[in-house]
């Protein structure tokens, strides 16, 4: 049981977390007295009490994240288990990614407690789009890249809902890990680690929606003429990752639901 | 909101050129000259000691408060990274591979774009262009250059991760989010150059178990980690906490 880890992690960035929870003793007392089954519920109410967001608003975002982490985690578990799929040289990298995704699942489930959604059944062929995903390394790596790049965009799109909260910090700490993964997978596929325009980089055409809008070159109401040097649209687009809305992500993820 | 104290000595290297862009090739020369002069001063001339006594002559840059302060904080870090990669590509280390050149050139351009974006976005609230001291870095050694790059990129990621919750304007938060993931992509690529195909791109030294979380640092935790490279004192006292 790692029920206290989330509080410990918050404490790292918010030393006053226990004060927000009235006192250290009451925080631990509340959790300590709770029966195992009820403990996650207690943690949920701790969040609500400490950060003034309704449980639903935070739970909503965390469950959305959990869905994507379930998807990624199972994808890498199956990929690593498929004999002869991942070349020996690349296994260490994918094993590291898989470890993190499993950790993210456990972390989010813990944070959500009873509110956590159950893991759905997945269809990694995405309704027949990637039929050889666990037999053809090229397909597997391409889908891995698309999932990671999309995960980055999805977390980023939810940041605004967590404005000013410590849960935001935790989400950002996952978000940048997904970006590290994305860069690695892109590079072992022979792509740049960053997204160039809205070109996924030799990914199946069905993934176009995952990269829609990544070619944006205007930021904060300023277009690319703001830059003294003349950079190409491609270079400017690389320098900023773009968000996906929850609706966009759900549309992208739906074919992966069995 | 920036309060800037310019050194009194007109010939002081920090005063000189404060308001003009530094020529790209002069970073090393500048830093090297400063340190050579400082070393000579140790010979013990009181007048020159005063000149270089940080308590008397130091350039102080106040980041300001609120969201402006956080954006200026990001602007400090982006200026630092941009200056670093400009130097890296001005004096490329011997044996830089085509892949490394491509990556380091992209990183230079991305960081200049980030830097210039913050400058424009901040407008008259922007702190001035800073000068940097990279004299301790051996730019002719591949491992030194890449190790330092990984340090800056990892620190950038941790800095944005820790500053996110201090931002009040949702548009600024999203902008920071658009940049931090690119910094994380950089960190991953540089780490992989140092130890190819190993787990280091998201190594256990930065992504902690058991929760798989990247680092997050507050501004007051981050600034001392980069202070030695910045030829000015950054006052972050008024930033949100």
Would you mind describing this structure in some detail?
The complex is a heterodimer of chains A (258) and B (241). Chain A has two domains: 1-52, no CATH class; 53-256, Ferritin, core subunit, four-helix bundle (Ferritin), CATH 1.20.1260. Helices cover 59% and strands 0% of the residues of chain A. Chain A contains eleven helices and no strands. In chain A, helix 5 (55-81) runs antiparallel to helix 6 (88-112), helix 5 (55-81) runs antiparallel to helix 7 and helix 7 runs antiparallel to helix 8. Chain A is globular. Chain B is mostly helical and 241 residues long. Chain B has one domain: Ferritin, core subunit, four-helix bundle (Ferritin). Chain B is 55% helix and 3% strand. In chain B, strands 1-2-3 form a three-stranded mixed beta sheet, with no helix packed on it. In chain B, helix 4 packs antiparallel against helix 6 (142-163), helix 5 packs antiparallel against helix 7 and helix 6 runs antiparallel to helix 7 (170-194). Classes of the chains: A mainly alpha (258), B mainly alpha (241). Chains A and B meet through helix 1, helix 6, helix 8 and helix 10 of A and helix 5, helix 6 and helix 7 of B.
């Amino acid at each position: 049981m790692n029920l206290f880890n989330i509080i410990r992690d918050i404490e790292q960035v918010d030393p006053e977390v226990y004060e927000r929870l009235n006192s250290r003793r009451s925080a631990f007392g509340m959790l300590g007295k709770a029966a195992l089954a009820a403990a996650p519920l207690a943690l949920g109410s701790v969040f609500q009490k400490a950060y003034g967001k309704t449980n639903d608003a935070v739970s909503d975002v965390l469950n959305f994240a959990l869905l994507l982490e379930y998807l990624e985690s199972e994808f890498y578990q199956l990929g690593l288990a498929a004999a002869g799929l991942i070349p020996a040289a690349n296994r260490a990298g994918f094993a590291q990614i898989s470890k993190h995704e499993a950790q993210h699942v456990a972390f989010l489930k813990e944070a959500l407690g009873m509110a956590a959604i159950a893991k759905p059944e997945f269809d990694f062929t995405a309704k027949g789009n990637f039929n050889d995903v666990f037999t053809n390394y090229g397909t597997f790596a391409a889908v891995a890249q698309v999932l990671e790049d999309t995960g980055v965009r999805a977390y980023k799109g939810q940041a605004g809902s967590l404005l000013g909260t410590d849960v935001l910090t935790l989400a950002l700490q996952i978000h940048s890990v997904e970006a590290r993964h994305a860069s690695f997978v892109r590079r072992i596929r022979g792509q740049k680690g960053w997204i160039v325009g809205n070109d996924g980089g030799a990914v199946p055409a069905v993934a176009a929606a995952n990269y829609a809008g990544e070619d944006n070159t205007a930021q904060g109401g300023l277009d690319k003429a703001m830059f003294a040097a003349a950079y190409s649209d491609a270079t400017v687009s690389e320098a900023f990752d773009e968000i996906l809305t929850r609706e966009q992500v759900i549309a992208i993820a739906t074919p992966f639901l069995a | 909101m920036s309060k800037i104290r310019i050194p009194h000595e007109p010939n002081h290297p920090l005063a000189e050129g404060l308001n003009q862009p530094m020529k790209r090739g002069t970073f090393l020369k500048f830093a090297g000259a400063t340190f050579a002069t400082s070393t000579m001063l140790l010979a013990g001339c009181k007048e020159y000691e005063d000149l270089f006594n940080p308590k008397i002559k130091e350039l102080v840059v106040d980041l300001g408060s609120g969201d402006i302060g956080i954006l200026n904080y990001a602007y400090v870090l982006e200026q630092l990274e941009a200056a670093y990669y400009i130097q890296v590509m001005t004096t490329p280390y011997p044996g830089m591979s085509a892949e490394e050149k491509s990556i380091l050139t992209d990183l230079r351009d991305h960081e200049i774009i980030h830097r210039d974006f913050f400058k424009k976005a901040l407008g008259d609230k922007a702190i001035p262009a800073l000068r940097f001291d990279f004299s301790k870095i051996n730019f002719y050694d591949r491992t030194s250059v890449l190790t330092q790059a990984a340090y800056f990129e990892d620190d950038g990621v941790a800095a944005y991760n820790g500053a996110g919750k201090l931002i009040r304007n949702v548009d600024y938060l999203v902008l920071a989010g658009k940049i931090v993931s690119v910094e994380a992509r950089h960190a991953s690529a540089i780490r992989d150059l140092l130890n190819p195909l190993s787990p280091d791109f998201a190594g256990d030294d930065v992504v902690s178990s058991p929760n798989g979380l990247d680092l997050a640092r507050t501004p007051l935790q981050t600034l001392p980690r980069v202070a030695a490279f910045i030829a000015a004192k950054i006052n972050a006292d008024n930033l949100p906490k």
